[in-house]
Structure formats: structure tokens, C-alpha cells
Amino acid sequence: MGMKIIGLLGSPLVKGNTAKLLDQAFRGETDAGCEVENIVVPFLDFSPCMEIMYCKEHTTCRLKDDMIPIYEKVREVDSIIVATPVMTMGIPGKFKGFMDRFQVFFMAKFVRKQPLVDPVKKKHRRGLYFVISGMNLPNVFDGSKRTIQSFFQINDCKYWDQRANPRYGYDHGYYSAAGTA
Q1: Cβ count within 10 A of residue 104
Q2: In the chain, pLDDT over 90 holds for what percent of residues?
Q3: What's the CA angle centered on 116, arms 111 and 120, to 5 degrees?
Q4: What is the mean predicted confidence (pLDDT) over 149-168?
Q5: CA nearest neighbour of 88 among 165, 142, 159, 45
Q6: Which strands, in side-by-side order, build the sheet including 158-159?
Q7: Residue 128: how many CB atoms within 10 A of its CB?
Q8: Residues 123, 95: Cα–Cα separation, whole Å
């Protein structure tokens, strides 16, 4: 079996431009023999991080909602693809709340010094980032890019930064190339 890849769609528009970019990436990944799963984050049922700090001493969150099974999936994947639009120069609110719930991984890695991602898997994990925006401003992607870089670092995914591929019809944006093992 090939690599396991999770795609995180930050847009609620499952037929929108951001979803089309993610679908194109999935097509390439499945053609390469990878197993892919699409998680449409805006449709998940979860609360924002409440800073309970349960995760400071445990490998999960005390809040029991749709995030709990996602933690295990993220631990086990070889790569993560994030596809999201930019809203007011940053990550859409629901998706940002989703990322904030990864304090579980942050506490394990940086506080307890016991990362949740297996060291062998960490060596080849990659993060791929697709982002689009309707605003044509020179720094429109700066905020979201930094947020995604942090998200990937917390989850032990290497982030590669490059300009968006114009063949998708967008003349600005960032993406990263998912590497192979």
C-alpha cells in the first residue's frame, strides 16, 4: 500500500475553487498509489480550544467531539494537504479553530518532549499548502502562510514554500510540494 495522505479543506464550498485544487492534488496522489482522505473542516462538530490544559499531561483533549478521531489520523498519515481560501488576510475562523485544537500535539512535542508522531514517520512527512484569495494584494498570503507553517511544525510535517502553479488559473498563492518517502 502507498502513502496515507489527509487533505484538510478549509472552505465550506465543496465544489468551489479551493476544493478543485485539493481534488487535483488527490488525483495525482491516487494515481501515484497513495491512499487519500478528505476532511471538510467547516462541517466538523467541535468546540474551539478552551485552554483547559488537559493535553499538557495527556495525549488527547478533554473536549469530546469530532476532533478526537482526527488526532489519531494525523498521527498516522505520511503527509497532510491543506487547502483553504484567505479571509481578511488570514485563515478562515472555523479552520483556525481546528488548528488551535492541535495543542494536543504542541504540548506533547514542546512541553512533555514526547512527540505524538513516530520518529521514523516524521523523517518523510510533508505538508502541502494550497491557498487562494479573491484579493490582489502583495501580502495577502503572509498571515495564512505563517499560520500553516506553524501548524505543520507542530504536527511534524516538513513545509516547502513555492509560488502557486499558474496552470490552476490563479496568478498568486503559495503551495508546497509533498515529497516521497
Answers
A1: 23
A2: 75
A3: 120
A4: 71
A5: 142
A6: 35-40, 4-9, 79-85, 126-132, 158-159
A7: 24
A8: 26
Alpha carbon 111 to chain centroid distance?
Answer: 22
Q: Which domains does the chain have, with CATH numbers?
A: 4-10+48-169 (3.40.50.360)
Q: How far apart are CA 67 and CA 47, in angstroms?
A: 9
**What is the β-pairing status of strands 162-163 and 174-175?**
antiparallel
And the C-alpha cell for 69?
A: 478521531
Task: Please report, to the nearest 10 degrees, the dihedral formed by the alpha carbons of residues 8, 84, 139, 79 taken in order.
Answer: 20
pLDDT (tens digit per residue) in 116-136: 999 999 999 999 999 988 888
| Closest CA relative to residue 86, chosen from 18, 150, 158 | 18
Average pLDDT, the chain: 87
pLDDT of residue 168: 37
Q: Confidence band (pLDDT; 50, 70, 90) for 139?
A: confident
Residue for grid cell 503527509? 79
